[in-house]
Amino acid sequence: MSNMSDITPESLIVILDSLKADYVAVIDQLDLNTPISAAGDWNARQILSHIIGSLNRVPIHAGYYLANVSPIPITFSDPYWIEAWHDAPIQAFKAAFEAAVEGNKALVRSLPSDVFWRVLPVTSFGELPLGAFLMVNYNDHIRGQHLHQLKAFIEVAQPA
Fold first, then answer.
1. What b/e string do you get for 63-72 counting C-beta neighbours within 10 Å, with b at 16 or more?
2. What is the pLDDT of residues 42-59, one digit of tens each?
3. Which residues pair with 128 in a beta bridge?
4. Which residues 6+ apart lie within 8 Å of 102 measured at CB?
5. What are the backbone dihedrals phi and psi of residue 15, each rounded to the nearest 5 degrees, phi first?
6. How far is residue 133's CA from residue 112's CA, in Å, rounded to a whole number?
7. What letter would DSSP give residue 38?
């Protein structure tokens, strides 16, 4: 989205629906045991755990906006590791991801318009309205930074 006026609750719901479809398509093809490509990279379980954890933290961050309390604390490079992910089947990741997306859709729908445009300082990002913060999280972070990482695991498992 090129400018702030393009960000609406409806546009965020469209992005979340698109994220859900794109990730589910990848998850359905993913082998959680595909080896990482380079030392220091995250494995598929860690990437999935990270994005699920990121989606689960969004309501916490939104709560800072709702309470008008700043700054919004952001954690970077955290795989949000939950011990159960170590052996969880792919269906567990898929169910948790879908539930997190649906929870975020409910959150977006529930936000009062004055809070949607409330501006607060966000750690490492500066002043952002909640709507822009959500766009960055959903579109730039979850889609832009991590979807291609999971797709790479499919390409390794199924070379062209």
1. ebbeeeeeeb
2. 899 999 999 999 999 999
3. 120
4. none
5. -65, -45
6. 15
7. S
How confident is the model over 16-27, as a mean pLDDT? 98
Most confident listed range (4-18, 37-51, 65-79): 4-18
Q: Which residues, 6+ apart, have CB-to-CB distance to 36 below 8 Å?
A: 42, 43
**Cα–Cα distance measured from residue 100 to residue 98, given in angstroms and rounded to the nearest whole number:** 5
CA 74, 75, 76, 80 torsion: positive or negative?
negative
Q: Interior CA angle at 89 toward 41 and 40, to 5°?
A: 10
Q: Which two tokens stand for residue 102?
A: 């649906």
Structural domain spans, the chain: 4-157
User: Do the Cβ atoms of 129 and 4 come closer than 8 Å?
Assistant: yes
Pick from 115, 5, 140: which is nearest to 59 by CA? 115
Long-range pairs of 142-150 with CB within 8 A, sequence gap ≥ 24: 142/19, 142/51, 142/54, 142/55, 143/15, 143/18, 143/19, 143/22, 146/47, 146/50, 146/51, 147/19, 147/22, 147/23, 147/26, 149/42, 149/47, 150/23, 150/26, 150/27, 150/30, 150/44, 150/47, 150/48
The CATH superfamily assigned to 4-157 is dinb family like domain (1.20.120.450)
